[in-house]
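Tutorial, part two.
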Amino acid sequence: MKQYTLEIACFSAESAFVAAANGAGRIELCEDYSCGGISPSAETAMQVIKQVKVPVFIMIRPRAGNFIYRASELEYMKQQMILFGEMGCAGFVFGALTSENTVDLDACKYLVSSTGSLPCTFHRAFDITPDPGKALENVIACGFSRILTSGGQDTAMAGAAQIRELITRANNRIVIMPGGGVRASNISDLRNVTGAVEYHSAALDKQRDKIDPEEIIALKRNLVL
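Running the prediction step on this input gives:
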């Protein structure tokens, strides 16, 4: 029987506690849902890392907007990674692009080398790259452990066929994790189309203002049905 992992994106310590208590297999910790997430504060990260029993991956994104980073921003991101690593986080989530929206090999290799061997996820900046096949190879070359992607579409369900193709191309060299509109209502269909073993959801309530514990429970249940 396949082993599946459900990662929940959490935008506060309170959300992380709810996610961990209701079946999340991993937490992606960040802040500011409205912009897609930025790095959490050191205080929030410390609180979550010390209190939850599941792996906590920290988003490393110093600001909203594009993913083209200056040298000073990359240095700041590196220092964040060192700090969060010392706190005991399980991994990092980030991505860096060039002005052409291709994977910034130099920036990504620089940051991956700063992790102290902790695993890294290339986030949905991947979805705006012009050549997903080439981007896949570049992300692998940089040393990432997984890619969070909606298959270049607005939602993972809309991009399910493309995600399946990425998984085939990856050939077990990297984990491809569907994310973007993943809900209990579609996760089993997404699993059947893509064959992915890891899934990412914010599991927000209908007002999109807080995490929904019942949605997490349903996500986990429907993933293995």
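The mean pLDDT is 97. In part three we will examine how such features are distributed along the chain.
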